[in-house]
Amino acid sequence: MQQLLRVHNVMLSSDGFGAGEGQSLERPFGHADPAVLGAWAFATASWPNRTEPGGTRGLDDHFMREFGRNIGAEIMGRNKFGPQRGPWRDHEWQGWWGDEPPFHTPVFVLTHHERPSFSLSDTTFHFVSGAPATVLEQAKEAADGRDVRLGGGAATIRQFLDADLVDTVHVAVAPVELGAGSRLWTSPDELLDRFHHEVVPSPSGVTHHLFWRR
Amino acid sequence: MQQLLRVHNVMLSSDGFGAGEGQSLERPFGHADPAVLGAWAFATASWPNRTEPGGTRGLDDHFMREFGRNIGAEIMGRNKFGPQRGPWRDHEWQGWWGDEPPFHTPVFVLTHHERPSFSLSDTTFHFVSGAPATVLEQAKEAADGRDVRLGGGAATIRQFLDADLVDTVHVAVAPVELGAGSRLWTSPDELLDRFHHEVVPSPSGVTHHLFWRR
């Protein structure tokens, strides 16, 4: 069984940015408002950080359900893990997600700065450097036959796309412009040489883009 | 955790029929052509009866992936199980699906005629009579905390809808008229008093209808 590298639920502005400028502890998405970029996701029954019952079970929820299906590991960029840059000053920061991170698998955080692995509930964070292909190999081994999710942000996804390591991509484009920030693409057409592409407008107002290898 | 009764991948004509007239061993869908009703499904990577690698991974595939996700049992009508009607003359018929049925769970076949349970690979078929609510109770117990899929055909789904036992429904309407046969609805509007409804056209030409309880 082929192990895929899958991208899911990337929240993007209509001009191609996954986060704004000036990311910080207080504003993890910089000048972008996550409540606008992610409104479609937060409303779904399957939103992994959902704390109250309920939520929609329509099209958007079908995409959200893919987040954990047959996933055995995640790869994420350091900027998704936290607002720090440069060497780790201490190890107090353990991510945005509290004691029960929504990953439930090994997570490989890309960083040039060493840090010991640690576990929170059933998620273990490893800190790795190395070329995308090398990190993907580590993650596939940890995934034990299941697929690997490429968790973002936009720059990290772009890096793995440029290395031609990604098998499927799901992006949800919100009807908002950011003007600047962490860019995934100038246009989805950039991927058409290597991927099939479907565009699916959702009743919630976002437009889902699906890509899979030709 | 609530156990849902879920309907997935119901293939329907634009005039509301799930199968044509004159169902038989040679024509399980009667005068309807399953290659037309189901073209969208058979093309997907996740089609459960797929024998060759490949297949699409776009919108239609996202719906197909739901077939097995968190499902612990299926309920199906006798007409889905086979072309026989009336008392079982023998027990040679074991369904349409060969030695490896795509269900991988207990399956409850609705029939007024007794027949012993049997297993094929990791699927066990039980033959049950009784009101929909009673059969659902049996299936939920067998599902061991997971959801129950209501597998069809159209008349069986209608029966459980009329008993108000269904939580989510996914129907894929193909651009073809049948004129007669096994009917799910005259119009999807019949469900709007009890369900949210989303209509999602697919690039493949079918239109997906999603319903979840209000």
UniProtKB/TrEMBL annotation, chains A, B:
Coiled coil: none annotated. InterPro entries: DHFR-like_dom_sf, RibDG_C, Riboflavin_Biosynth_HTPR. It holds the Pfam family RibD_C. GO terms for biological process: riboflavin biosynthetic process. Residues 32-186 form the Bacterial bifunctional deaminase-reductase C-terminal domain. Gene3D superfamilies: Dihydrofolate Reductase, subunit A. One of its GO terms (molecular function) is 5-amino-6-(5-phosphoribosylamino)uracil reductase activity. PANTHER family: BIFUNCTIONAL DEAMINASE-REDUCTASE DOMAIN PROTEIN, DIHYDROFOLATE REDUCTASE FAMILY PROTEIN (AFU_ORTHOLOGUE AFUA_8G06820). This is Deaminase/reductase.
